[in-house]
Amino acid sequence: MNPTNPFLILSFFIFTFSGKVVVEACNFYISNKCTYPIWPATAANVGHPVLANGGFYLPPGEQRKIQAPGDWVGRIWARTGCRFSSNNIRACETGDCGGKLQCNGLIGAPPVTLAQFALQADKNKPNFYDVSLVDGYNLPISITSIPFSSKCHVGGCTKNLNNVCPEELEVLNDDGEVVACKSACLAFNNDKFCCRNEYGTPSKCKPSIYSKIFKDACPFYYSYAYDNPPPLVNCVSDDYLITFCPSTKWNSGIESA
Questions:
Q1: What average pLDDT score do residues 85-99 get?
Q2: How far apart are the C-alpha atoms of 7 and 141, rounded to whole Å?
Q3: Which UniProt keywords apply (predicted)?
């Protein structure tokens, strides 16, 4: 995860100073509404367990439940265009983790859309989560609490970002199709785009022409590290639905929130 992401600073504060009360389980329901298979993956922050061995296959229209400890901190993403073999070469067009089906703690290669969670052991306190494009985009994601609450909902995108991705940020597959869109930080490794060094504060790191394209397509996500107001959700719930390609209209290129 990007070290300048406010989500990480907040999760560090929670788990360093709040103390643990009762660690109850939290359920993630991972749903694939894309018209093609995906390979969801998980990676935990240091000191937290890997969920579902780090990755699995999920056909279109299917859903899988995975359980996390009540104080889990980590990320969830989807890999696309995967063909696995035994020689550990890159297996997926996006989000690959060393050519493995089960990432086992490995972080997926960017650019990918990331769902980030910081759960709290004290279930009287809210969990924190967001969707980030700080390292780029491959698929739209929505997050919904169960039962549904509008204040606990992270919506999807209004546009397919891969369709409007600037050429210099595009990631192409072997057929020349745009399968992901890099962030400006990932593409150019520039301090201004990466919010680091002299640009490492909210007052110095401002939206760029590229982050504005991301924000226009996906207004509910982090478009760069110091996005303001922070699109960070806090919600008390033990169950969350994480949906890839959440709208039935998505596969025609239009995604509803």
A1: 85
A2: 17
A3: Disulfide bond, Signal
